[in-house]
């Protein structure tokens, strides 16, 4: 078997139809097996997949009793037979040559893991505004797969394709991580000397959340689990990873100290000036501009507050040892 693809899903009915079709097309003419592992969806995703795979002999459907991505991947890994293993998701659209190009890159270049930039798209004008905010440095910092589209060696990529030998050597996902499990695994790859290549030939269309509340939850939990990732693998840690938490902390302090000295409010004024500037730069309509004024703080303060809580949880664990 050349390729095994594992797709954890949960409540993806809004996106799964487009994603499923792209997965089928991108694995066509490749000796492959595809495992959909559903985390007990309540929106009809499981039922839709159960019906959709009936016409595809290489597709299988499993139930993920723990509902988290790490368990989904690990639970079926031993069933796979592919020389190359990929973990992708059900709310992304993949190009027709995604896996063929990935395998060619792994065969012909010095790389052990490959992936591509994620082009963020929305289904509505709000989604497109959110996508724009998630693809520039002010919105997401140094997240290379979101802001760059050039071939380069990186520390992590979304929707990766691994040489099987890599996973057999370093192990699978850490099931303690409900979020950021892909970052931890990729950092572990890098710490063990493996190379991760991001290629623009593998660009995907990632469909973003359409509501601010959903975006907040997504990035809040990314933040909560990031400190745990760095406790497990220090390789990927850089100072800039602390900026969201520091910004959130300083913003809170600025609000409190403003009651004693109004000059402390300058910190927030400067931040919102940057918010306005980047909302103008990356939007071409009035309504997108005003919505972006909310999106940037949503990204920054959700992730930052999550990281603060993550570090507090780590500190409390140290005290109770």
Q: Key terms for this structure?
A:
Spore Coat Polysaccharide Biosynthesis Protein SpsA, Chain A; 3-stranded mixed beta sheet; 11 strands; globular; 8-stranded mixed beta sheet; 14% strand; alpha/beta; 2 domains; 321 residues; 50% helix
Note down, in words, how this protein is organized.
- The protein has about 325 residues and is of the alpha/beta class.
- The protein has two domains: about 5-230, Spore Coat Polysaccharide Biosynthesis Protein SpsA, Chain A, CATH 3.90.550.10; about 235-320, no CATH class.
- Helix content is about 50%, strand content about 15%.
- The protein has 13 helices and eleven strands.
- The chain has helices spanning about 15-25, 45-50, 70-75, 100-110, 125-135, 135-140, 145, 165-170, 180-190, 210-230, 245-260, 265-280, 285-320, and strands at about 5-10, 30-40, 60-65, 85, 90-95, 115, 120, 150-155, 160-165, 195-200, 205.
- The strands form two sheets. An eight-stranded mixed beta sheet has the order 3-2-1-4-9-6-10-8, sandwiched between helices.
- α1 links the parallel β1 and β2 (about 30-40).
- The radius of gyration is 20 Å and the shape is globular.
- The mean pLDDT is about 90.
């Amino acid at each position: 078997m050349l390729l095994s693809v594992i797709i954890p899903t949960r409540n993806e009915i809004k996106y799964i139809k487009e994603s499923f079709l792209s997965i089928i097309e991108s694995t066509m003419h490749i000796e492959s097996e595809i495992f959909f592992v559903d985390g007990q969806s309540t929106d009809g995703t499981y039922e839709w997949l159960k019906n959709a795979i009936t016409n595809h002999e290489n597709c299988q459907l499993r139930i993920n009793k723990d509902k988290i991505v790490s368990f989904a991947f690990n639970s079926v890994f031993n069933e796979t037979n592919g020389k190359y293993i990929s973990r992708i998701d059900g709310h992304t659209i993949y190009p027709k040559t995604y896996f063929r190009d990935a395998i060619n890159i792994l065969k012909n270049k010095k790389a052990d893991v490959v992936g591509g930039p994620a082009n963020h798209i929305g289904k509505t004008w709000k989604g497109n505004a959110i996508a724009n905010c998630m693809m520039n440095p002010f919105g997401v910092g140094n997240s290379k797969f979101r802001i760059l589209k050039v071939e380069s060696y990186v520390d992590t990529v979304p929707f990766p394709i691994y040489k099987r030998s890599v996973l057999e050597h370093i192990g699978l996902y850490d099931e303690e991580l409900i979020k950021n499990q892909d970052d931890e695994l990729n950092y572990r790859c890098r710490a063990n000397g493996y190379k991760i290549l991001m290629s623009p030939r593998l660009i995907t269309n990632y469909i973003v959340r359409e509501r601010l509340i959903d975006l907040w939850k997504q990035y809040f939990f990314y933040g909560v689990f990031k400190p745990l990732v760095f406790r497990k693998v220090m390789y990927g840690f850089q100072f800039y990873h602390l900026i969201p938490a520091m910004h959130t902390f300083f913003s809170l302090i600025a609000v409190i100290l403003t009651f004693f000295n109004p000059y402390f409010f300058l910190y927030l004024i400067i931040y919102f000036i940057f918010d306005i500037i980047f909302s103008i730069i990356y939007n071409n309509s009035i309504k997108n501009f005003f919505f972006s004024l909310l999106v940037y703080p949503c990204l920054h303060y959700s992730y930052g507050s999550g990281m603060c809580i993550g570090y507090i949880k780590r500190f409390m664990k140290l005290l109770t040892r």
